[in-house]
Amino acid sequence: MTEIHDEEADDPQHPEEHIAPVPRISVQAFCETEKTLAAVTAAGQDRRLAKAHLTAKSGGLAAAIEVYDTMPTPNVIVIESDGTRDILEGLDDLAGVCDPGTRVVVIGNPGDTAPYRELVRRGVNDYVVGPVETIDVVRSICSLFSASEAIITGRVIAVVGAKGGVGASTVAHNVAWTIARDLALDSVVIDLDLAFGTAGLDYNQDPAQGIANAVLSQDRPDTALMERLLAKCTEHLSLLAAPATLDRVYDFGAEAFDAIFDTLRMTTPCIVLDVPHQWSAWTKRALVNADDIVIVAEPDLANLRNTKNMLTVLKTARPNDRPPLYCINQVGMHKRAEIEVKAFAKTMESQPLAVIPFDSKLFSTAANNGQMIAEVSKSHRTTELFQTMANRLAGRGEVRKPKRSLLGPLLKKLKGRTGRGSAPHRKAS
């Protein structure tokens, strides 16, 4: 039983849209309506604006001009126009008190008649027609930096188990390998289980350095350091391996890995986090700040409870993101009582991203050989499943294979017969 479910059409938040986080900036908003004020204030709590210092107040253009007449302007100014004042005239006045380099976002009114070209001439970087929702504000501010800076803003995918031993690492490693091979996206796997990580074994790598060297470094990790620590697995896949030793304990603060993730985002299109099954400040932060989350669970009661709890907490912490995804692994184990997939999904109030069948020989062979599932069996149905998951998580959507014709094999044989022997005589003209 191999299944993958597609709920993208039901997701109002545009699930494939990738909104990159902003650097450390200051943002000040001047709103005309309470609805916009509430939306901007809520945007300040979004994970992608976590590094921004955002303040919002009432007053619109007039208040902004008055404030900046006596004080310097921030990195970004958000202005709401209620349509009662000529917006071009107001922007001319704002330009007189605005510092060079300040970026301006205008939340317009449907009644505004100013051409967009004129707004751009006056230094407006983005124009959004109101009324706006929180995600509109987040998208607009983030786009100022992801679109204007010549850097990569990588997508972070975090994979975690609802319980220990459910195969979350295996799922993470196979999905990352498939993204790198089939989509040709430069990708990095980060094994965050420093004591017991298995990524090095799964990829048949034994690097001398890895994630421990980066997180324990006295200096802030930069691109040069990360390049030295990465182990090359394939043409497009690199590994930041765990030491998997017990010569020390690995206790970290909540922000211990932030600099590592930020540095890799600037150079790598796809980053897959293999998050260990533990609930600490730094694991929760890694999950909350990821672009996509996949919880891997087995079909039993403990996994059911843990998955439900994790989905609830993570949905609440990420109100403007696609809800976390989950997949059910090792389904159909011989002589094991299992919760049916339908019952599991009913409790979660959503369908699983995938249902992965139990196949002890396939997975154990891959693990013992240091191979991926596709390397052991290219045509196995689980290989196809990982390919579909990779496309979905990399923002490429689901790849649907054309249906096979029942007459296909027969037509192929007939074509082969007509192609053999002497060439047919041409009819004389």
TrEMBL record:
Q: Which GO terms describe its biological process?
A: negative regulation of cell division
ATP-binding listed as a keyword: yes
Q: Where is this region: Disordered?
A: 1-22
Q: Which UniProt keywords apply?
A: ATP-binding, Nucleotide-binding
AAA domain span: 155-318
**CC terms in the record's Gene Ontology section:** cytoplasmic side of plasma membrane; cytosol
Q: Which Pfam families match?
A: AAA_31
Q: Looking at the keywords, is Nucleotide-binding present?
A: yes
Cite the record's Acidic residues compositional bias ranges: 1-10
Extract the Gene3D superfamilies matched here: 3.40.50.2300, P-loop containing nucleotide triphosphate hydrolases
Judging by the UniProt lineage, the source's domain of life is Bacteria
One of the entry's Gene Ontology molecular-function terms is: ATP hydrolysis activity
**Listed name of the protein:** CtpF protein
